[in-house]
């Protein structure tokens, strides 16, 4: 899977690239508008992560170019401007998703994952992790062919963990993913714990392994190692 | 005094000016006529007297004593000495035909004819004069009244016509929106002053729009400049978390730094939001009903409510007519409902009522009443320091209410904090949707 990261801040660009490469993507980068346009024209990508505010041009024009080229690539806009107008015009032009800076790398990764699944496999290809099988089309989950009954939040958690497997995900990243901005109002993230506890219990009861490692005071890691 | 329409005011001033003027001139005319006619009658009387004197000078030789008496003329011998000048006066005399007293003008003079004294009295009835004056007065009134009505109508018509460009411009100014300001233009008028007004208004609008643009760009740039370093720091910390050689304590420290950065990002976001509301820089294209947003947030925050074992009592209307821009409705409801959960104690209560007139939310809390003077101030947390609070929630709520002219009130009673937002309603009470 090839991803192009268009971001002018070198430090942020490196961080995104490193995280995505750790998750198994082939990652290329472009620091400004002309280079991004050149790469978009010369190569095919599965997904493009584009900042709107770029030197020498606007990220929205890259989306237009991609659409003109009839590219199949998924497009995620990342912008420091939390402006509804930018968001709407980006989505109108054909972007698949929009993330406001600052964001969690695990969130960006999960979104890239979701887009690629939708685009390339029509959402019908099963996701496998050892004995766990997820059919995204029907939102069904099996452990060694035993169907699991998960709540919507537990299902989202499981997908998020598998997308970010072997990585530490923080409680705030999880809360943000599951509840959006509403989690700001919580005052604590303890309520996440009960969802994780239930997910872990259901997986164990169906004969699965305990892949969720708790990292004290920090977050969780989904790992089979 | 209640402000009146320009046209009404000019009409009133015009009436105040013209009515006394017309009244005074009518009375002046009346008295002038009166005087003139009186003068005329006196002259006629004197003329008659001279005729009589001449006549009697010629006649008296044959008949030495005269005694004549008619209502209009009498000549009677008297013993008084002769008068040099006649006396003119107005008298009321009884008239047999009419059966009442009627006004007369009379001339009296004691004359000496062939050494005999006579009192000469000549009278003229004033009834005809009074009728004449009455008629003149009525005609005057009709003419003046007609003139007044005509002038009033003309004035109204002219004013309406002349002021039309002004009212058109006023209409345009009413409908003006900050975002679409640059597209406002005024059509040229044939009146110099209005054109001057239009030029001044256009200059002012251009300036305001430029200011608005620069403020908008400033807030957006500020957001960009602050969010980008935050994004870098956060992503680096997240990468650092993946280092498997780190101890739990080190990971915990990194996670705490990351959370602190997130708080900073949210704080920045909230401050920008306040600035945007102050500058009216929010998207108004997608209005959302409060009822819908409230339901949505109660759903989103359901876990938190259950987690704290709070009893939620809701009375939500089906009416969706109370709307505001989606972004603002979100902030308003999420802050109020969020506060009600956040500052509650485990096992506490939240009561939420929304109808088409009022939004009321009350919650139990172990926190004391918020002092009124710092209720909606920024960074005043009512003495409370909660890690996740940025002290801007109520300031944002207040700002949104102010923007929409929604009165918001707070009161505290028996450990229950209550916020009430009233819908700024007109006099007519909207009916409930079925």
Structural features, described:
- The complex is a heterodimer of chains A (225) and B (434).
- With 225 residues, chain A is an alpha/beta fold.
- Chain A folds into two domains: 2-120, Rossmann fold, CATH 3.40.50; 127-222, Winged helix-like DNA-binding domain superfamily/Winged helix DNA-binding domain (Arc Repressor Mutant, subunit A).
- Helix content of chain A is 43%, strand content 24%.
- Chain A contains eight helices and 14 strands.
- Chain A has helices at 10-22, 33-42, 59-68, 84-93, 105-120, 152-163, 171-179, 190-205, and strands at 2-6, 26-30, 47-51, 53-54, 57-58, 74-79, 97-100, 127-129, 132-135, 140-143, 146-148, 168-170, 212-215, 219-222.
- In chain A, helix 2 packs parallel to helix 3 and helix 6 crosses helix 8.
- The longest helix of chain A is centred in the middle third of the chain and has 16 residues, at 105-120.
- With 434 residues, chain B is of the alpha+beta class.
- Chain B folds into three domains: 6-147, no CATH class; 192-278, Methane Monooxygenase Hydroxylase, Chain G, domain 1 (Up-down Bundle), CATH 1.20.58; 287-422, Heat Shock Protein 90, CATH 3.30.565.10.
- Chain B is built from eight helices and twelve strands.
- Chain B has a five-stranded antiparallel β-sheet.
- In chain B, strand 3 and strand 4 form a beta hairpin.
- The radius of gyration of chain B is 48 Å and the shape is rod-shaped.
- The model of chain B is unreliable at 425-434 (pLDDT under 50).
- At the A-B interface, helix 1, helix 7 and helix 8 of A face helix 3, helix 4, helix 6 and helix 7 of B.
Blueprint of the fold:
The complex is a heterodimer of chains A (225) and B (434).
Chain A: E1 2-6, H1 10-22, E2 26-30, H2 33-42, E3 47-51, E4 53-54, E5 57-58, H3 59-68, E6 74-79, H4 84-93, E7 97-100, H5 105-120, E8 127-129, E9 132-135, E10 140-143, E11 146-148, H6 152-163, E12 168-170, H7 171-179, H8 190-205, E13 212-215, E14 219-222
Parallel strand pairs in A: 1-2, 1-3, 3-6, 6-7
Antiparallel strand pairs in A: 4-5, 8-9, 9-10, 10-11, 12-14, 13-14
Helix pairs in contact in A: 2-3, 6-8
Chain B: H1 6-59, E1 68-69, E2 73-77, E3 87-95, E4 100-113, E5 116-125, H2 127-174, H3 192-241, H4 248-278, E6 287-289, H5 290-300, H6 302-307, E7 311-316, E8 323-325, H7 326-342, E9 349-354, E10 358-364, H8 393-403, E11 408-413, E12 416-422
Parallel strand pairs in B: 7-9
Antiparallel strand pairs in B: 1-2, 2-5, 3-4, 4-5, 6-8, 9-10, 10-12, 11-12
Helix pairs in contact in B: 1-2, 3-4, 4-8, 5-7, 7-8
């Amino acid at each position: 899977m090839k991803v192009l990261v268009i971001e002018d801040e070198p430090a942020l660009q490196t961080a995104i690239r490193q995280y995505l490469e750790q998750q198994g993507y082939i990652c290329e980068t472009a620091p400004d508008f002309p280079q991004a346009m050149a790469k978009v024209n010369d190569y095919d990508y599965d997904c493009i992560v584009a900042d709107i505010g770029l030197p020498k041009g606007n990220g929205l024009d890259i989306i237009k170019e991609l659409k003109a080229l009839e590219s199949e690539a998924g497009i995620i806009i990342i912008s420091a401007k939390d402006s509804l107008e930018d968001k709407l015009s980006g989505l109108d032009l054909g972007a698949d998703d929009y993330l406001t800076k600052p964001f969690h790398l695990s969130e960006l990764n999960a979104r890239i994952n979701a887009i690629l699944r939708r685009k390339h496999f029509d959402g019908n290809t099963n996701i496998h992790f050892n004995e766990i099988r997820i059919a995204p089309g029907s939102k069904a989950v099996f452990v060694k062919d035993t169907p699991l009954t998960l709540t919507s939040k537990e299902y989202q958690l499981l997908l998020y963990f598998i997308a970010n497997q072997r990585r530490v995900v923080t409680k705030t990243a999880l809360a943000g993913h599951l509840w959006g901005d509403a989690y700001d109002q919580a005052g604590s993230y303890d309520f996440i714990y009960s969802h994780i506890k239930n997910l872990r219990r259901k997986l164990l009861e169906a004969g699965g392994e305990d892949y969720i490692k708790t990292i004290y005071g920090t977050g969780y890691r989904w790992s089979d190692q | 005094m209640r402000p009146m329409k320009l046209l009404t005011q000019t009409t009133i001033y015009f009436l105040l000016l013209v009515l006394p003027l017309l009244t005074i001139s009518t009375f002046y005319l009346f008295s002038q006529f009166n005087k003139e006619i009186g003068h005329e009658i006196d002259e006629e009387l004197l003329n008659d007297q001279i005729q009589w004197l001449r006549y009697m000078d010629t006649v008296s030789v044959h008949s030495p004593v005269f005694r004549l008496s008619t209502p209009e003329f009498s000549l009677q011998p008297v013993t008084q000495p002769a008068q040099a000048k006649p006396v003119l006066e107005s008298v009321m005399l009884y008239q047999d035909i009419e059966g009442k007293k009627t006004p007369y003008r009379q001339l009296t003079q004691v004359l000496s004819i062939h050494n005999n004294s006579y009192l000469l009295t000549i009278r003229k009835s004033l009834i005809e004069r009074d009728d004449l004056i009455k008629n003149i007065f009525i005609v005057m009134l009709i003419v003046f009244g007609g003139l007044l009505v005509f002038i009033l109508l003309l004035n109204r018509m002219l004013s309406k016509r002349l002021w039309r460009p002004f009212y058109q411009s006023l209409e345009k100014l009413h409908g003006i929106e900050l975002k679409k300001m640059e597209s406002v233009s005024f059509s040229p008028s044939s009146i110099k002053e209005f054109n001057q007004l239009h030029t001044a208004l256009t200059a002012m609008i251009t300036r305001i729009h430029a200011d608005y643009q620069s403020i908008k760009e400033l807030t957006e740039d500020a957001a960009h400049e602050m969010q980008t370093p935050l994004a870098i720091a956060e992503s680096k910390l997240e990468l650092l978390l993946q280092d498997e050689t780190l101890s739990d304590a080190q990971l915990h420290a990194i996670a705490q730094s990351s959370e602190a950065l997130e708080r900073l990002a949210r704080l920045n976001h909230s401050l920008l939001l306040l600035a945007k509301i102050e500058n009216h820089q929010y998207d108004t294209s997608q209005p959302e009903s409060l009822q819908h947003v409230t339901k949505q947030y109660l759903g989103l925050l359901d876990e938190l409510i259950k987690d704290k074992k709070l009893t939620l009592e809701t009375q939500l209307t089906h009416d969706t007519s109370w709307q505001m821009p989606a972004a603002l409705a979100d902030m308003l409801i999420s802050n109020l409902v969020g506060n009600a959960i956040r500052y509650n104690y485990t096992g506490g209560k939240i009561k939420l009522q929304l109808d088409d007139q009022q939004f009321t939310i009350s919650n139990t809390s172990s926190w004391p009443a918020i002092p009124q003077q710092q209720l909606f101030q920024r960074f005043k947390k009512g003495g409370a320091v909660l890690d996740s609070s940025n002290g801007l929630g109520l300031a944002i709520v207040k700002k949104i209410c102010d923007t929409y002219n929604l009165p918001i009130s707070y009161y505290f009673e028996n450990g229950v904090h209550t916020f009430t937002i009233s819908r700024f309603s007109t006099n007519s009470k909207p009916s409930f949707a079925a």
